[in-house]
Amino acid sequence: MIRIFIDGRPVPAPEGATILEAAEANGILIPHFCRHASLRPVGSCRICLVAIEGLPKLEPACATAVRQDMKVATSTPPVREARRDVLELLLAEHPLDCPICDKAGECRLQDYAHEYGLTGGAFDEERRGRAKLVRIGPHLLLDRERCVLCTRCVRFLAEVTGTHELGLFERGNRTEVGLYEDQPVASIDAGNLVDLCPVGAITDNRFRFRTRCWFLEARPSICPFCARGCAVDADYHPGFARRAGTSGIYRIRPRVDPEVNGGWICDRGRYGCLDLNRDRLAGARRILAGGEEDWSWERAIGFLAERCRESAPTVLLSSRLTSEEMSLAGRLFRDGLGARRIAFLDPPRGEAEGLLLRPDRSANGLGADRLGFDRTADPVEAVRGASLLIILAADPAGAIGLAGREDVLASIRTKILIAPQKTGLERAMDLVLGSATVFEKGGTFIGEGGGMRAFEPVHPSRLDVRSEGWILAALAEALRADPPVFGGGR
Ligand code: FES
């Protein structure tokens, strides 16, 4: 560690750190656009200029390393004036469309312009129009008038994903971000560009114009779309009292976890999490030959208990169950009821793609392994000859293995499905119970490397659903088994 002075205050700094890093670590904020902690510094936007004693010019804090006893001034009149000039130059092109911009409320340019008292451009010349709606990827739109050429997007695709889809084209005031040979950004990690863009030039068509960021609360959770278990923030809107249906999760963003996902997430998790609320199952429904009947939870649990008393169940579990729920299922079905068979409805394995996505697409496969469940069993084979089948399809993608196998299912006397979303199996069942999604319950997954990934419910469900833990505990109670203490969810 060495010592430097920032605005007269002595602060410790690791050797080799930049002035900006040292300042940030000591709670001193220096404005920045192009600098990002996970990308190489390029010192191109010049908004982070600071004065260093003994040097004739202002220097970029993001690209200047600290030296022992260096004296740095971050807000003297010349420094503020230089930053103001940089902002004026940026605002010569950047439209003042904050009232309709998705980034408003979390935009650095908006914040700095406000801080430096800039309410409009200083130029009388006509603005040079640029393309405002350039589709650069399946979910991404680029507004070139808003772009401040910080090149974070270009550097992310060069340094982090290595896919190089974006580059800087032209020269001087014609410089713009563009695609090579009009090939769209195909990286499965492309959604990170939206989070990286400091000014709302790259926006996400799943979020555009849907809400304002100040209505959202970032609530921590874990992505359930592969074995990595990336840390995410689910941006939750509590809803407007006078407008029904406005509550819910509007956006998923990475939460920094250096051990697991750094500061990134893949698009499979980013958009898959938004789809968890689609095609929901709710309440308890008895499926009869001529139609359906809505049942109370009490009646449904009573029916389930009665069938469990009559015959040993065959149980299909999903690795999107928490470790607590799996443990409860093991104690209840395996140890208590002597289940005929317990198998897993894991989603099919895939390729390792991009930075983070693992071939094992199970959220809590390691939890299942630790609890001694066999994840290799073939679900179709496992259910053959069963008389009572209980399917906990917390991850509906796992049900693919049974879809279309009515020939096997038809011979089973009683079939019960517990799932948060439609699986395609509903019509072949006798009783269907709607369960909570990962964001509506709490518990623990075991992440890659064996780390515990504990999470709380992000929000209460608007639907009449119960967590699988609740359903299993209620069943244990109805069977007068010893109901273990179980936390999280409803
Ligand atoms: Fe330092 Fe851009 S943040 S030059």
Structure description:
The structure is a single chain. The protein is an alpha+beta fold. It has three domains: 2-91, Ubiquitin-like (UB roll) (Roll); 98-277, Alpha-Beta Plaits; 284-478, Rossmann fold, CATH 3.40.50. It has helices at residues 19-25, 77-91, 108-115, 152-160, 192-196, 267-274, 297-310, 323-336, 365-370, 379-383, 406-409, 468-478, and strands spanning 2-6, 9-13, 49-52, 59-60, 71-73, 134-135, 140-142, 166-169, 176-179, 202-204, 217-222, 231-237, 248-254, 284-288, 291-295, 314-317, 341-344, 388-392, 414-419, 431-434, 443-446, 452-455. The longest helix is centred in the N-terminal third of the chain and has 15 residues, at 77-91. The radius of gyration is 27 Å and the shape is elongated. The model is unreliable at 485-490 (pLDDT under 50).
Can you describe this structure in just a few lines?
By secondary structure, this protein is α+β, with helices and mostly antiparallel strands.
